[in-house]
């Protein structure tokens, strides 16, 4: 599985790498049709614009699933985006059956 991480105006924290690595490992085990995952982490301005994570999983059929989450803390946005993407992958698989 290909993994692409882009961080815009934010330094990656080691805990975020661990969470991403663990999620990707589970995804590869439970969703073998996923060929690539792209994550974009954008730092908010500290004001009304919160931190944002956009997660995209692309299957071998080239159909992407996208999940975007915004939160006051990047760790929360990352967790929410990955959870949403996992849920959407499960729904897609259930519909295939």
Q: How would you describe this protein?
A:
This protein is an alpha+beta fold and 97 residues long. 41% of the residues lie in helices and 34% in strands. It has two helices and four strands, in the order E-H-E-E-E-H. Strands 1-2-3-4 form a four-stranded mixed beta sheet, covered by helices on one side. The radius of gyration is 13 Å and the shape is elongated.
* Low-confidence sequence ranges: none
Overall structural class, as computed from helix and strand content, comes to alpha+beta
**Distance separating the two termini:** 23 Å
Described by the principal axes of the CA atoms, the overall outline is: elongated
Largest sheet: 4 strands, mixed
Work out the number of β strands: 4
Provide the gyration radius in Å.
Answer: 13 Å
Helix percent band: 40-55%
Mean pLDDT: 92
The fraction of residues in strands falls at 25-35%
Cross-sheet strand order for the largest sheet? 1-2-3-4
The total count of helices amounts to: 2
- Series of secondary-structure elements, N-terminal to C-terminal: EHEEEH
